[in-house]
Amino acid sequence: MGLGSVGAKAQTESRQIQGFVVDTAGTRLKGVTVRLTSTQDTVTAITSNAGYYRVKDVKGSDIRISYSMLGYQIVNRTLSSQNLSSFIVMPNVVLRPQSSLIEGVYIVKTIPVVYAGDTIQYNMDAFNFRANSLLEEALKQLPGIQVSRDGTVYAQGKPISSVQVDGRKFFGGDVLTATRNLPADFIKSIQILNHRDDHAIDRGFTAEDPEKILNIVLKDDRKRISFGQLTGGVGTRERYIGSGGFNRFDDGQEFSLIGSINNTNTSLFSFGSPTGIGEREKSLFDVNDFVDPTDGLNNIKSLGFSFSDNLGEHTQFNASYSFTRKENVTEGNSILSSDYVGNRIRNKEDYVITNNDNFHRLTAELKHRFKNHDILEVKPVFSYNEVSVWNRRTRLVENNNITNDGKYRDSSSHKNPNLDLDILYAKAFKKQGRKLLGSISFNFNSQRKLEEVWDYYVSVDSTPVDPIISQFEQRYFIQQRNGTDGARASLSFVEPFSEYSTLEFLYNYEITDMTTQRIVEDKLKFREPDDFFYVDSLGVNYNYRFRNSRMGLNYQYTPNKTFKANIGFAVQPVRLTSFLPREDMQYTYENVNLVPTAGFKWKLNDEADWSVDYVGKNNQPNLLHIIPIRDNSNSQNIIVGNPELKAEFSNRISTTLRKFVTSRGQYFETNFAYNYVVNKIVSDKKAFSGSTIQETTFKNTDGYYDIKWYYLFNTPLFNENVQLDISGNVDYYNNLSYINDKRNTTRQFIYSQSAQLRYTWSDYFESMFNANYLLNNASYTWPISTEITGHSLLASAATKSYLGEHVTLGTEVSQRFNSGYASSFMNINPTIINAYLEFSFLQNKRALLRLQGFDLLDKNKNMGTYSEYVGNDIYEAKNNRLGRYFMVTLNMRLQKYPKKK
Length: 901
Hints:
Blueprint: H1 3-12, E1 15-23, E2 33-37, E3 42-46, E4 52-58, E5 63-68, E6 75-79, E7 87-89, E8 93-95, E9 113-116, E10 119-123, H2 135-139, E11 145-147, E12 153-155, E13 158-165, E14 168-169, H3 175-179, E15 187-195, E16 211-218, E17 224-235, E18 240-250, E19 253-262, E20 297-312, E21 315-340, E22 343-369, E23 375-398, E24 402-427, E25 435-461, E26 468-496, E27 501-522, E28 540-560, E29 563-580, E30 585-605, E31 608-619, H4 623-626, E32 630-631, E33 637-640, E34 648-661, E35 666-678, E36 680-687, E37 694-701, E38 704-717, E39 719-739, E40 742-761, E41 765-780, E42 786-802, E43 807-819, E44 831-841, E45 847-854, E46 864-870, E47 873-879, E48 885-896
Parallel strand pairs: 1-7, 1-8, 13-16, 33-37, 36-39
Antiparallel strand pairs: 1-4, 2-3, 2-5, 5-6, 9-10, 10-15, 11-12, 12-13, 13-14, 15-16, 17-18, 17-48, 18-19, 19-20, 20-21, 21-22, 21-47, 22-23, 23-24, 24-25, 25-26, 26-27, 27-28, 28-29, 29-30, 30-31, 31-34, 32-33, 34-35, 35-38, 36-37, 38-39, 39-40, 40-41, 41-42, 42-43, 43-44, 44-45, 45-48, 46-47
C-alpha cells in the first residue's frame, strides 16, 4: 500500500482510537474521563478496570483528546491529520498528581501502533533508544521486527526488500545503507507496507506475494539537516577499516555520499556503521548466533551516492550510483557421495577459490503527475559486473574398484552489462473506482565469458588381478557469449458496476529471446604451430524464445469493510521455440494454461484478519537446462542440456491469519501454503559402468510439491521491559529426480523453532537470551532407502551495560551443537565469544572510541559449513572464515542544523 493510499483512507473512513491510562507508577487507572473532539465528533469515554478506553466511529480530522480525573493533572493530546488511519493505538498516557506544574503527554515503553490493513506504523517516540543509536539497533526493539547477522530486516516473518525515506527510495532502496546510516533519533515513525503496486492496490491478478517495504518518516525538525560520520580502525592479523559518509536532507531534497574500505567482511553498503565493525556490529538482539556468516577472507572497497529532489511541483526524481570491488579468497573441502545400484561414487575435494568482483549499479526514477492527474513513472536500472575467478582443486574420486587422483584448474573472466527499463502510465478518471493502467518493461542482458580449464588425474582400476593404471588430461579454452533480451507489457482496466463490485479486464504479454555462442579450443591438439584446434561437438550456436500471453477477467466484491473477495479466470497460451542454425534443427513446445485466480480476506474484528489466496505462474527453463551441448569441461560431471524442455506451471494456495491484541501488546501471525508444480524441471543422472564419471541432463515430470507453515508470536512478559519473541516453521519438499532412468523421490523435512527473550532495565542494562533448534531430515528412495537426520541447537546470550554516561561494556556468547550429519567436519560444536568496550567523549558524545575482541576462542574460522541433499547426492562442505582478532576504532559524528530565522 502506498503512502498516498494511507492518507486517503484517513480522510474517507471512520476510525477507532484506543489505549491505556496509567499513573506515574505504571498502574492502570480506572474511571478516567476521556473526551475526544474533532471537526465532526464530540465523544466521551470512561476507562475500564484495566485502564483501557476505546472510541469508535470517529469521522472528523483535527482530533484532540483530553484525559482527566479528580486528583490528577489534565493531559491533552492532538493527533496530526497526516497520521490518521482506520485503527490507531495511542501510546500509554501518564496522569501525574495535581501538584505537578507540567502539562503534556508522557510516553512509556509500550506498543504504539497505527494498524491499518496492509500497513503497520510504529511511533518511535514511544521507545527508549540510547543516544546516537542507528536505525538498525532501534529496529531490533520493535515488536514483530527482527534483524539477522547480515543486516537483513524481517517484518512479521518476511524480509524487507526496499527502504524509503518520506515516501522516496533511499539509495535505490538499499536496506543496509538506510539501517546503518540513519540515526534513530531523527525518525518520527516507521511504516511497514505490504506493497504490490502504487496505483493498482486491489488488483486480483498477481502471481507474486506482496513485497514488504520499510518507509521512514523523519521528524519535522530533521527534514533540514546535514549529518555524517568518519570511522577508522586497525587491529591484529592486519585487520583494518575506514569509512565515511555525508547526508543532506532539505525538505524533500536528499543527497548522500558514502564510502568504505575494509578487510573485516563488512557487508556491502554498510558504510555508516559508527563503530565500523560491519556485520558484527549488531548490538544485542541478533536472531542468529554471533559467528561471522561470510565464507572466506574479503577485501572490500565501496563508494556510492544518492540524490532525490522535486524537479517541479508535480515531478519527483531520484538517482543513485554504487560501486563495489570485492576480493574474496575461500579455502575449503567437500565430500559428494552419489549412490547407484552396487556403485557409490565418492568425490573428496580440497579447493582454493579466488574471486575478484567489480560491480557498478546506476538507478533512476522519475514520477510525474499531469494536470489531469494522470501519472507517468519511468525507472531505468543499469548494472555492469566484471568478475575474475581462479578455481584450484585437488580431488580424489572413488567407486568400488576405481580410484582417480588428480587436479582441476579453472580460471575465467566474465563481463556482464544489464539494463532494465520500466515505464508505467496510470490514467485518471472522474468516476470513482475506474482505473486504466498500462506498463511496459524491457530487459537487455549480455555476458561474455572466457574460461580456461585443465583437468588431470591418474586412474587406478583394481578390478583385474594386476591393477590397470592410466592417465587422463584435457585442457580447453572456452569462449562463450550469452544474450538475453526480454519485453513485458500489460494493460488493465477496472470498472465499478455496482456499489460493491468491480470488474477488471487484464492482458499481459511477455517475450524472452536468448542466444548463446560457444567455441571450445583443445589446447593439447594443434594442426599447425599457429593454428587452433576447435572441438566441434562442444561448440554451439543456439537461439531460444519464450513467449506467453495472459488474458483474464477478475471480479472483486466488497460488500462491507469486513469482507473482500477476488475471483478471476485467465487463459495463458505458452510457446517455446529453439533453433540450432548449424544443424538446421528447431524445437517447439506449445501449451494453453487455464488459470483460475481467487482471493478472500475477512476482517474478523478490529484486531484480526484472515486471508486465502490461490495463484498460478509459469517458470521457463534457464539456459543451463536447455543449451544442447555435451559440456565435459569437468570430466567427472558432464552436463547435457535438453532443448525440448517445457515450461513449469506452479499452483500455489496459501492462507494467513493475523491477530493484534492491543490490550496486551501482542502480535500473532501464521501462514500455511501448498505449492504443486506441473512439468517440474528435474535432473536426470546416469553413471557410466566401470567409471567414476556421471552425466546429468534434464527432463519434465509431474509430482513435485512443497508444504510450508510458519508462525510468529510477540508478547511482553510481566511488563513492557521484558519482550518474548517465539517463531517456528515447518517445510516439507517432495523433490523428484531420475537416476539411471529410474524415478527417485527425495523427501526433505525441515523444522525450526526459535525463542528470544529481551530484557531492558532502565537505561543501564540490556540483555538477550536466545534458543534455536533446527531439524533437517532427508530421505531418498533409490537405489536404496537412505535417510539422514541432522540436528542443530543454538543457545546464546548477550548483555550490554552502561557504566555511567560515557562508558559501555558488552559481551556476546553463543554455543552451537550439531549432530547427525554424514561428514564428521559438519558435527562441530563451536563456542563464540565477543566482547567490546566503548568510550564516548567530546560535546554531545560525538566521538566514540571502541575496543573490540572478536571470536576470543578462535572458533569462527571453522564455521563455514554447508549441506545439500538432492536426488541420490549427499553434498557437505566446510569453508574458512575470519578468525579471532582485536581491533580499535574511532568514530566521529558530524551534524549541522540550519540557522533559525
